[in-house]
Amino acid sequence: MAWSTREIAELAGTSLRAVRHYHEVGLLEEPERRANGYKQYGVAHLVRVLRIKRLADLGFSLPQIAAMGDSDDHPAEALRTLDAELAATIERLQRVRVELGLILRQAAPTDLPPEIAPAATGAKLSDADRSLIVVLTRVLGPQGLRSYADLLRNLPGDPVADEFDDLPDDADEATRRDVAERMVPYIRRLRAEHPGLRTRHSDAPHSADFIEETVGKALVELYNSAQLDVLHRSEVLLQASAGSEDTAG
């Protein structure tokens, strides 16, 4: 019994292209050819194509099938390895489904991890603030993320925060000074109500220097020069007031 390439593909329930590809990658030996040059496949070829197709349907890649060789023995070790890989994939997909359900129910942003996405959904954030949060999720540990999630869930409204968001790049000196001075009590309140922000680096996967450098680069790209100036002035004023309190104490 001899079949053409098209016939063996039909018998195996696959395509001409697949059979030819099996030849190209060395999974299927080339059959003998008739006098007219056409290939003639036998039962052994059909069995081999069916085995390749079956293993591929189970989830094995072609390189994995090639590594098993031509033997038709029960590939127990390979099957156990594949089963473990599939179990890990199923677990990952189940986690993804849980996250998708959370995103759909809460209309949460897709660019934030589940630890912080729900909190960010309800917070009034500028585009720059939101992008900064995304950067923070890549450098902070679980404790730091929880601190920021708590901050976002309880973010107090304050006109100065809106003024900061709307501050134009060409804001004059008086405006910058005024916003910075009024930012101080707002920032002080946030830090007092969320002390975890002070130790946000404690369980981070990176060093404090790396985090500060990364966040610094993000700030420069996300905020305009007037906003950066206000942040700097506010921090200087905060440090000065803290020093005054220490001296008085």
TrEMBL record:
Signal peptide: none annotated. GO terms for molecular function: DNA binding; DNA-binding transcription factor activity. PROSITE patterns: HTH_MERR_2. Keywords: DNA-binding. It comes from the Bacteria. Gene3D superfamilies: 1.10.1660.10. SMART domains: HTH_MERR (SM00422). Residues 2-71 form the HTH merR-type domain. This is MerR family transcriptional regulator.
